[in-house]
Design a protein that fits this description.
By secondary structure, the protein is of the alpha/beta class. It contains 9 helices and 14 strands.
């Protein structure tokens, strides 16, 4: 139903028939006052609170809301609304959020036609931080993300070595310290050598000397890199995630995944009882060892080449969403 509206978004992704605007919301107000017909403003990237006085920014949003026929939608990404400069701090931090900031977020959310959360875990996290949902229309819809490549879960044959791959920025909050410990603990009893790899920028200066850094990646070459390496196991070690586009990449390989229960449990539900291995912190060495043993005993299929196209898929729940009253 998108053709029925003039749709504007401050997302940096480009979509057909959607007009991209910058994050200057004063400019947005002017545009909608003069250029809209039947408009939708879909906020995909958080507004920059630190650019304005909070009370002034609340007034800007109120003016947007009062424009006739303008519908406002918000898609939640991480915790930018609470902390623009450090969005993930509130995943684990218990510091009280400033009352004025909380009031502003509450006001924004109540004004919108729908606030869209990628998982219920994220919605609950916002609730725990003080957002009240009795007057907020919210929906749980996965992000617009990579189209499913339909590779069934499998174990690749192990011949001369096991290749373990970490995909992400190699930083502490992404689990770089955990990867280093897995390597240094030497817990493996399997009979073949284990080689360790990272696809992503290196931020942890204490990286193990045994890690082979393959460089950074982007949407256009990630599967090309994975196909060249042909890993046996992929690690998802982040200490906290709200959705994780990187996890979608991992799932689309069909390969075994060792993952942190607290960061990924909701999105991994559909892959339970296949070739994925959940750890909860204290038991990671035991789970990792079990995973390595399974790679040896269950690996009976040649590596499955992944189509390297990066096509986006829009969840069905977005169909007719702008008709929300």
């Amino acid at each position: 139903n998108h053709e029925n509206y003039d749709i504007y978004t401050n997302s940096r992704k480009q979509f057909k028939n959607v007009k991209n605007i910058n994050d200057d919301f004063i400019e947005v107000v002017k545009k909608f006052q003069t250029q809209y017909k039947k408009g939708v403003l879909h906020i995909n990237i958080f507004p920059y609170f630190n650019s304005y006085n909070l009370n002034k920014f609340r007034l800007i949003f109120k003016r947007l809301y009062e424009i006739q026929n303008l519908k406002i939608f918000i898609t939640i990404h991480d915790f930018f609304w609470f902390s623009p400069n450090n969005p993930n701090i509130f995943m684990t931090d218990t510091t009280k959020i400033d009352d004025e900031l909380l009031k502003t977020i509450q006001t924004f959310f109540e004004y919108t036609k729908a606030v869209i959360f990628p998982t219920n875990s994220v919605r609950k996290a916002y609730e725990e931080k003080g957002i009240r949902f009795e007057n907020i229309n919210y929906k749980i819809i996965p992000h617009i993300d990579l189209k499913n490549k339909n590779i069934q879960p499998y174990y690749q044959k192990v011949t001369n070595e096991i290749k373990v791959l970490f995909i992400s920025h190699f930083a502490n909050h992404k689990g770089s310290d955990i990867y280093n410990k897995l390597i240094s603990n030497k817990v493996s009893t399997v009979s073949v050598p284990i080689k360790y790899y990272v696809l992503g920028k290196k931020y942890d200066k204490n990286a193990s000397d045994e890690i082979n850094f393959l460089g950074d990646y982007n949407d256009t070459n990630i599967f090309t890199h994975i196909n060249e390496l042909k890993p046996h196991l992929i690690l998802a070690l982040s200490k906290y995630e709200t959705y994780s586009y990187t996890l979608t990449i991992m799932l689309n390989t069909g390969l075994p995944i060792l993952y942190n229960k607290y960061a990924y449990h909701e999105r991994m539900e559909s892959r339970k009882n296949t070739n994925v291995y959940e750890y909860d912190g204290d038991n990671i060495n035991v789970i990792y060892q079990k995973c390595l043993e399974d790679l040896i005993t269950k690996g009976n299929i040649d590596y499955q080449i992944i189509d390297d196209a990066f096509e986006l898929s829009i969840p069905d729940e977005y169909i007719n969403i702008y008709d929300t009253e």
